[in-house]
Amino acid sequence: MTDALDLHLNRDQRDLYERTREIAAESLAPIAAAGTPGRVNRPLVAALAEHGLLARLFERDQVSAIELCLIREALARACTEAETAFALQGLGAYPIVQAGSEALKAQWIPQVAAGTAVAAFALTEPEAGSDPAAVSLHAGPDGGGGYVLNGEKLWISNAPEADIYTVFARTEATTGARGLTAFVIPGDAPGLAGEPREMLAPHAIGSLTFDDVAVSADQVLGEPGAGFRVAMRTLDLFRPSVGAFAIGMARTALDLATAYTLERRAFGKPLKDHQAVAHRLAELRAHTEAARLMVHQAALAHDAQASDPSVAAMAKLLATEVAQQAVDAAVQFHGAVALEQGHPLEHLYRDVRAPRIYEGASEIQREIIARTMFRTPPQ
């Protein structure tokens, strides 16, 4: 857009954004196009590793939230499949980075960073979508210091094809700790089964069934009963970058709409000369760039260890909502051509919907913001 909106970024961060955007357009998009919708694209995951992008997630214990935002937005500008594959590797494996034993890190993180193992984050259940406290997957004692898991997970990205799952289950006092406990479970664990789900999203999403899945105490992430904290620390890191993913789609949609309205004529003049079109695009551009700055502020606050849940909530809410509006307007001004299969906007129209739901739906973000407002009323 303009350098004036990137003054808060240093040269390395700006270069990271531009380099990632170039990689996405030139190298990753063709690999994504050759993949099968609804399946894990392993060559794409491997390519993310080859270009050094996955290493950004795992080369140090503390992941930079602003770098995460820049990479996700840049990938989304040219290849949403690559963005999703990148994000899911991080989401599935970051709990191991932040709470795993040295043995678990050594076993799994090099494989995930190299793109040879696909990771997944398994929190959601049929009755526990936006409410992690309602998780019912049960982890009972096995009598020898380990656990036996029974229950199911639903709408899990990369399931049932992932090689490694971060799984959250409810433990009881009889296991030594009451509450949620986080586990690392290989995809080929005996008793673990899964089914793909036919979803609007182009990447793999499925269900998981746990039938007496045996888990040792060595597979626990953090302390038993502290799984909620493991999940929230991961989501707190990734939540601003969900907004960055949405901003990437919004910026691309507005660029497509701007280019189209320059050349398309209607009623004797270019579409850009129709005030209803020009003013709507101008308004969306302003809202998109404002949301982007909010996303970056939330990420910078996280990196400075000054994060505020309400700021992250505002960032995700504004970014995902304006992205939906921007893509919808771009489709509207293109007309029927944008709905033809294979058109970039047809692709974005499908992809832009999900971020308003996952990692905390827009309604949940509004609740977080409202609670903060009323807990500390203005003086």
Short summary:
The protein has helices at residues 11-33, 42-50, 55-58, 65-78, 80-99, 102-113, 227-263, 275-303, 309-334, 344-351, 362-375, and strands at 119-122, 138-141, 147-157, 164-171, 179-186, 192-196, 205-215, 220-221, 265-266, 269-270.
Explain the overall architecture.
The chain has eleven helices and ten strands. Strands 1, 2, 3, 4, 5, 6, 7 and 8 form an eight-stranded mixed sheet that branches. A two-stranded antiparallel sheet has the order 9-10. The mean pLDDT is 92. It has three domains: 3-113, Acyl-CoA dehydrogenase/oxidase, N-terminal domain (Butyryl-Coa Dehydrogenase, subunit A, domain 1, Orthogonal Bundle); 119-225, Butyryl-CoA Dehydrogenase, subunit A, domain 2, CATH 2.40.110; 229-375, Up-down Bundle (Butyryl-CoA Dehydrogenase, subunit A, domain 3). 52% of the residues lie in helices and 15% in strands.
Largest sheet: 8 strands, mixed
Low-confidence runs of at least 5 consecutive residues: none
Shape: globular
Helix and strand element order: HHHHHHEEEEEEEEHEEHHHH
Mean pLDDT: 92
Number of discrete domains: 3
